[in-house]
């Protein structure tokens, strides 16, 4: 999927994944964090409601990255005091900066499954030692060809277990209604 593909989805308002608010499971997780200086990345951030929430809670080092410029420009207008230098219009796989925490929300499922191993290696590479990758994966297959692309617990465990300590990978209890019973919440710590 090229940047053009994603730009078109935003231009045509064809953004069925967009929650229009911070994802409840991620909000719940963010509310457990006390260190406001953590370096946090949201890859494939789209409209980045999680970044807005983090920013409003006083987190100072939040970075967002997306291939599509449209949602980043919208974000910039919506959250004008968010540091412009933390809004990155580029390919996640070209990022080199280090982070303490990477928050995953419908970015992984937007990638072709052939890119999943690359995602696992790249998230690990971007994290400082003991850094964490935290978020949500779909625990289902989709009828139509993706994106989104689905998966299951066993597959995710196999993909990440060599690079991360699987601290949590369980059915998500506080998903939004349409995703109830079809998401896993996970916390993976870099080995
Ligand atoms: C399904 S959307 C999810 C957006 C957002 N995470 C959300 O939950 O609303 C996937 C996003 O990933 C972005 N994306 C896809 N491939 C990317 C890549 N290689 N690097 C950065 N962003 C990418 C797309 O532009 C799109 O905004």
How is this fold's topology laid out?
Blueprint: H1 3-11, H2 24-30, E1 39-43, H3 49-56, E2 61-66, H4 69-78, E3 87-89, E4 99-104, H5 116-126, E5 127-138, H6 153-160, E6 164-171, E7 183-190
Parallel strand pairs: 1-2, 1-4, 2-3, 4-5
Antiparallel strand pairs: 5-7, 6-7
The protein binds S-adenosylmethionine.
Key structural traits:
binds S-adenosylmethionine, Rossmann fold, alpha/beta, seven-stranded mixed sheet, globular, 191 residues
Q: In whole angstroms, how far apart are the ends?
A: 30 Å
The stretches of 5 or more residues where confidence is low (pLDDT under 50) are none
> How many distinct helices?
6
**Rg from Cα:** 15 Å
Percent of residues in beta strands?
25-35%
Description:
This protein has 191 residues and is an alpha/beta fold. It has a single domain (3-13, 26-190), classed as 3-Layer(aba) Sandwich (Rossmann fold), CATH 3.40.50. Helices cover 28% and strands 25% of the residues. The protein has helices at residues 3-11, 24-30, 49-56, 69-78, 116-126, 153-160; strands spanning 39-43, 61-66, 87-89, 99-104, 127-138, 164-171, 183-190. The longest helix is centred in the middle third of the chain and has 11 residues, at 116-126. Bound molecules: S-adenosylmethionine (SAM). Residues 6, 17-18, 43-47, 65-68, 71, 91-93, 105-107, 110 line the site of S-adenosylmethionine.
